[in-house]
Amino acid sequence: MTRGNIVEFAGVQKSYDGRHLVIHDLDLGVRHGEFLTLLGASGSGKTTTLMMLAGFETPTRGHILMKGVPIEHLPPHRRGIGVVFQNYALFPHMSVAQNLAYPLKMRGDDRATIAARVEKFVHMVRLEGMEHRRPSELSGGQQQRVALARALVFEPDLVLMDEPLGALDKALREHMQDEIRQIHRELGVTVVYVTHDQSEALAMSDRIAIFQDGRIAQIAAPEELYERPASTFVAGFIGENNLLAGRADGSAADGRCRITLASGAEAMAALPHNRALPTAQVTLAVRPERLAIGRPAELLANRLRGRITDVTYLGDHLRAQVDIGGGQRMIVRKPVDQFPERPAIGAEILVGWREEDGLVFS
Amino acid sequence: MAVAVAHGAEAAELRRAWHRSGQRRRLVSLLLVAPLFLYVLLAFMLPIGLVLYRAFENPELIEAFPETASALSGWDGGEGLPPDPVFATFARELADAPKRATAEAARRLNYEISGFRTLISSSARKIDSIEPAEPSAMRAALVALDERWGEPAYWHAMKRATPSYTPYYILAALDLRQDDRGDVVLAPEDQRTYVDILLRTLRIAAVVTLICLLLGFPLANLMATASGPFAVILMIAVMLPFWTSLLARTSAWIVLLQKEGLVNSLLARLGLIHAPLELIFNTTGLYIVMVHMMLPFMVLPLYATMKGIPPHFMKASASLGAHPLRGFLHVYLPMTLPGVGAGALLTFIVTVGYYITPSLVASAGDQMVGYFIAFFANTTINWGMASALGMVLLACVVVLYLLAARMVGIRQLAGLK
After folding, report:
1. Does residue B338 lie within any of the structural domains?
2. Chain B positions in Cβ-Cβ contact with residue A154 (cut-off 8 Å)
3. What is the CATH number of domain A240-361?
4. Which CATH number fits domain A5-232: 3.40.50.300, 3.30.70.1350, 3.80.30.20, 3.40.50.720?
5. ipTM score over 0.85, yes or no
6. At residue A120, what are phi and psi to the nearest 5 degrees?
7. What part of B 40-79 touches A (C-beta under 8 Å)?
8. CA–CA min distance A56, chain B (Å)
9. Which of A108, A90, A107 has the alpha carbon at shortest distance from A99?
10. Each residue of B14-66: pLDDT tens digit?
11. Are A66 and A80 in contact (CB under 8 A)?
């Protein structure tokens, strides 16, 4: 067990039917006080992992340690972990105050303590004056806040959130993201957050664990995931990326190698983490916003000539599709003022990128 | 945000336009339900109305002795006998009235004072022997025919039986009666039976409802949480009684529970009992069979409510530190209350009015109101009493429904929420 980890998954496997594994050999440490997001498509095992931690599912094999103690056979009500559910699960027959008081009552706190604690958390989520309303009389955002406050009111060390913002509209969701971040900072509580929304994960997390088919594909800080993805899957999952198939010629120097794209064009690219020589068939990944076009591109080591096939105006930037030959396309995304002129479909264009912005994956 | 139209004329115009725009659709939907509406009106509301009317209708004396009736209504009903002309009119009408009308009137008067029927029929037979005389002489002649005509109680009874509408039946159904001065008093002790029967009916219905709730709650819960084929099998098991004839099920229970029945012989073979248990034609049998009949009425509303409670509420409760048992009491149980209310109300109401099963499996002392309604309607042809008992039963059910609606909420009882 690593010092500073509040939760440790050690060789955890989970199967629902005794034939297929939904979680393969999961090893995962959750650090004290961090905001860790489990990110993945539906069915990737992120929610199962969360439910095992909450105690609603039992690992088929392996151990879950909390503060060094195995908890995989501890019933949920004795784990002391706060959970915010996807649909809030507020008790409809209780008022806001009664919902918040419930966990305290179950712990046998006295009336005065309960009242004070409820008041404090009502204040924290800014629901003053709503204490006596039923959940059905609240808006979605307000219900979300009550759910948040209820999971925090008994001051657990660890709070789990299962896609808590999924039901809210975009503006409210972004607002709530800020609020959850702020509460996390204020209380210093450890948060394990599940979402399938990568921009939400990037915006909120200290670290993100990307789940792929029951395994963690990569776990790292958002910046590192974006800049140095460990695999084509991660490169394609986080943010937009141009993934081009090519062949490596086997030479490598200084952490770079030369690859040949389908059109016959050659490019130099950086090797990520594993500095081993890539096999012959490789994938080149270049972020759309790292591509230069027109005159600035002429100065760069990697240059391709292409033809614009589509342009989308997105307000703050333009997104253009460029056919670079060999049946391959690249997406270019640039602030509007960085396009020399409004590109026309069918126009020829030069795209270029720095060597270190191209990543090679086997 | 809705924007209100400021000016009165504009608002009225908007309302008219809105009304016109929906008119055709409303008309079509009304037409579509019209046949059902008519059917319910003619086959359900109208008969119920007529039966309830029968509880107050009082035509017998007016038909047989119209003039006596009007003469009696002019009498102040004080101490003593009515004035002489009443005797004369009555004697004349008794002689002239058709036999059938006289018999009806005699039957009606017999409800007031037992023995009145024979008084009327014997007097009617002998009335022709009386010579027509001065009105003042008719009183003596009638008393000579039967001295009971000289007793004021009989004339008071006749006066009470003359109005077109009478509270007699409804009072009788509550063990009450009007005395000679027209005051409502308790019926003589040996005639007080209906309140006991009513209370017994309510008690039986309450016990059946309670047993159904205790048995049905876990079953409904199992059905709501079971998955796949098991849930289907459970559902069929619950619905099966609904698909079998009531009479067949009741007879099957009689076969099973009787002295030489399957249950007794099994218990005897296992050595658990030495003498056969009395399981049928008594209170035990009534409860066993009624609970079986009523279980689906309890289980289905419970199941519907429980099915609508997502499992995440209990998970949330556990995550907040509540032992499953406390979670059940504080979270799950309150959320099932609308189903408990609807199921209990349905079971209770259906049980209160049940007739066939209790009449077949219960002892004479365990019969419910329904049995007596059938008795009055079929055996003694006393529609007034049958209707009055029905009304009392209906009133009980309505009061209960209002109470339940107040406690649980009428929308939840109706399954609208």
Report:
1. yes
2. 320-321
3. 2.40.50.100
4. 3.40.50.300
5. no
6. -60, -45
7. none
8. 7
9. A90
10. 888 888 888 888 899 999 999 999 999 999 999 889 988 999 999 998 999 99
11. no
